[in-house]
Amino acid sequence: MRQTTKFYAVLLCAALGFSTSIQSCKDYDDDIDSLNERIDAVNKSLEDLKKDFGALAFVKDVKWDESTRTLTITPATGNPVTYTIADADTKDGNTQYTLETKAEGKTVTITLKNDKGEVISAPTITMPDTPAEFDGTKLTIGEKGAILYDGEPTGATLPQVTIPGMTITEIKDAAGTVIGYTIKYGDNEPVNLKLISEKLQGLVFIPDFYYQGIEAMAANTFYYKALTLPTVNANDDFSTDKATEGKTFSLTPNLVANYHLNPSNAAVSDLKKENMFFIAEDKAYTKAGAHNVEVTDFKVNKGVLTVQAGLNKGMLKDIEKDGEVTVLALQVGTKNAEGDTLITSDYAAVKAREVKNIVLADAAKGYQATEVHFVTTAAEAIANDPQFTILWDNAKGIDVAELVATHADDADSKHISLDEKASTDKIKAYGFKYKYELIGYLAGDNKTSQSAHAAMNGSILRAQTTQNGLQQAFGAEQNRSTIGRMPLVRISLIDTAANNVVAVAYIKFKITDKEEVAPVDEVLHVANFTFNDKYTVGCTPASYNFPLNWAKVEEGIYTALNMSKEEFDTDPNLEQFTNTTINAQKVTTRLGIASRKQDNTGGEMTDVLAWEVSQAEAYNIFSAGATEAKIIVRFVRENANNTKHYVYVTLTWKPAELNVEPTGAILDDANTKFTSAWFAEDKGTPGFYEVHFNVEVPKTDATCKFEKNILDVFVGQKVLISDVDKTTYPSFTADKLVKEFVFVTPDETIVSGSDDNSYKLSVSTDGLTLNATLLDQNGKETATKDAVAVLSTTTDADATNNFVIYQDNDIAKAVLNYAGHLALGKNETLTAKVQVNVVNGCDQKLDVANNTFDVKFLRPISIEATDGSLEDAKDNGSDLALKDAMQFVDWRGFEFVPDNMNYFEYYGVETIAINVDDIMLGGKKLKDVYPAARVDYSETTTDKIASGDFGTITWHNNSTALSADITIELPVEVTYKWGTFK
Questions:
Q1: Identical fold, 202-223+253-353 and 356-512
Q2: 877 and 954 in contact (C-beta within 8 Å)?
Q3: Closest Cα to residue 721, out of 683, 678, 790, 672?
Q4: Model confidence over 325-365: pLDDT tens digits?
Q5: Per-block average pLDDT, block size 10, for the chain (982 residues)?
Q6: Distance, CA of 125 to CA of 135 (rounded, Å)
Q7: What secondary structure, in 3-state letters, does 683-734 show?
């Protein structure tokens, strides 16, 4: 914190056991914030003040009003008393001081330092056995600036001024709370005023934001890329200085919560960190177990209690995800852990919030728009006009911390502000700090750096002269010769834990004379024009044109800019902007073209403003649901004083009639669909819900391909689109329609494979590929993925992507063979979903009803059980040819018999296998139920299979004879061209 010429504050650390740097400051509360230090004539009111209050008094309040130069003091009893203080505009030699206190056991050291960090004095106080603690309220200032503790000199003395003047010293305790004031004039005995504190009665939460309508605080995690910055100084040329990005870091600081104290002057000395507790519940709303939220620090400023607490992020509930929300209330015991008085705040929600895109911004301009962000390279700042001015003879300088704030984006891309301005020190609670540096650069032929004509002390920037062309120490002589110089300041935001640079900004200042008023850019006028032309989705016209006549241009633009038509800019295409403010930015993507065109109104050719919107642009806007299209263009007049005057023109197209929803339908009738090729849902009976695709029908020259033309299931191999309003939408007549087939996500995405695995179906982005991904035992997707079916286009087809090609790979075969061709229910035969998309000749969508249908891929072959028997207790066992116990059929139900062609060869039947250990009896394994029996299987070969030999099974029973027939189930596994099934 900083001290101006005569006005410094003494901050006291009242807690034993730690050392803190407590610095004089000018950041007083609103009541005395603007106290002018240049006073060397004090009228009789000061004598009255001394007479009324003596050397020490306890009061309720002290207020200073700079505009009326009145000091108002409210005594412990009675009404406020006002004293008028005259101003003679004098200067003195006061500077900035730091008063540090450090306690070691019973010894308290009070160290007074000047603004250069030099120790002026460092006396010690030996505390008696009672009281055990150092009490900041007993620290006062006596005659000649002597610092007293409990009325006794400490050995520390504030330096005396050479010119008499009045000083007000604000005294704060360890928590940053004002506990008193000392008012002193010259060498006269000072008046020490101690503020009376009242008992804490209540706490009122100050919300950061509202979460689902609930007052809330944020548990932040900050993400940033660490920046590397070169070391700089004010003398050398660093005009190309900029940051280099490094790796990404995250920072999760303590939770920060703010509460209004009731009353605002509650006794802060009673507050102890160890007597503060958070209680937590999960609402919505079910009460949960206790949460451990530990208070780590607190401070009080202007009646506001700020508490920092450690928080386990995993404890937080989210309304949308959990149906609950975590809420906290602060409890404060004013005496001890049990608390003679226990105050509980209202409950507030805690919301985890990710914060990213951290930037530095102009504190005076709010945080809703990105244009208030400062530039991030020295070159940009140098090229731009100065953003702020500083008077050449401002002895105190200006506080750059008053100009800077930190902005960021949350997880919802909402722009937020982390502090109102850097001077509040609010940023410290988030684990950050600011760093301020003057950075040298050369301008023109001048060999002396612009920034050498200034100096910084912390965040205070002061204009001053150079010596031998180099910067002098802060506080050097000031001279009019510095007028016109433009020092450059680099501000860095630092992660105090990792010591990383999080964000950087460059600000250029201009040193000015008192009389100089910097000219500014200005928006002179905003003109609005609206067009009501009808819009209908279609391919014509190619574009829509909206010209303004000369009268509108003259009145809306020329007159506002005080510009003649000869001065009118001839740039044919105008830039479009985001808004009509002075800081408007160019849009990323233009809407149409705004240009100047010739108008011969009155027989004279004149440039007028016109706006042309293409058919595609109009379609994109209005088909998305918008009812108007709008652009903002800007006209600029360059003034002689290097400022700019702007006129914005808003052009709005708000169609009086909008036709943007052309529709059609694919009917379920015999004119549209070949009825014999369509089936009811999950059935083999007629209907219009799904189609069944299969391998090609066996014939001599066929190769058992699994390919299908989707158009075969439509009448005439054409997809008929009905019910289109051709009168309103002439661009959507049948001859202008373009149709395509695509896969879309099926109703059932988790499917089983014949390999006993599960798979998840998905569709490629372009809709041309149906994929299947292997799932692990926990149902999670693995990296194993392959195409199941692919769409392609045949020549001269009525619709593109009309040809389905089933894929020949292990995954495709596994999901194909899970169920036989008659198993058409849910989660049985592999089912895809196909959609018909329709657009017109200029790629505008027709919304088609009934445009999806299911496709079931039938397994090419299956086996069926037949009657076959074995005889028990036969010598050497009982044999049964497997062909007598089962038969093969294909997807049509055709048997593999001699009367048909050799289906074994056509379908590529390779092996037949039986795992005898898995033979079942009554739902259990035979070997477990009746281990005395044994079944052998003599395997066959591919050649034998083709001739109808499937192998032989033999039954052996070497134990007790069976009293009744039994039925055993054989686990037959068949491998053929399109995979393996059981």
A1: yes
A2: yes
A3: 672
A4: 678 888 888 764 455 678 888 888 887 778 899 999 998 87
A5: 28 26 32 34 53 65 69 73 60 45 68 58 65 61 70 67 53 59 66 70 82 79 91 95 90 79 74 78 43 73 78 55 71 64 83 86 73 89 93 93 91 81 87 95 84 95 93 93 94 91 96 73 87 96 88 66 55 80 92 81 62 96 96 85 86 96 97 97 97 94 95 98 97 97 97 98 98 97 98 94 98 98 96 98 97 98 90 83 94 86 92 94 92 92 92 88 86 97 94
A6: 12
A7: CCCECCCEEEECCCCCCCCCCCCCEEEHHHHEHHHCCCCECCCCCCCHHHCH
Q: Which CATH architecture has domain 202-223+253-353?
A: Sandwich (2.60)
CATH fold for domain 356-512: Immunoglobulin-like (2.60.40)
| Domain boundaries, given as residue ranges, for the chain | 9-195, 202-223+253-353, 356-512, 522-659, 664-857, 861-981
Alpha-helix runs per DSSP H in 852-961:
903-906, 926-929, 942-946
For residue 920, what are the β-bridge partners?
925, 969
DSSP code for 143: G
Contacts of 502 (CB under 8 A, 6+ apart): 222, 224, 226, 227, 358, 432, 492, 493, 494, 495
| Residue showing tokens 């330096």 | 159
Where on the phi/psi map is residue 401: left (φ > 0), alpha (ψ -120 to 50), or beta? alpha
In angstroms, rounded to a whole number, what is the distance separating the alpha carbons of residues 296 and 254? 8
CA 918, 922, 923, 927 torsion-angle sign: negative
Q: How many CB atoms lie within 10 A of CB 25?
A: 22
DSSP-assigned letters across all residues of 381-415:
HHHSPPSEEEETT-SS-EEGGGTEEEEEEETT--E
Tell me the per-residue pLDDT of 55-64, one tens digit each, with 9 for 90 and over.
666 676 777 6
DSSP label at residue 555: I
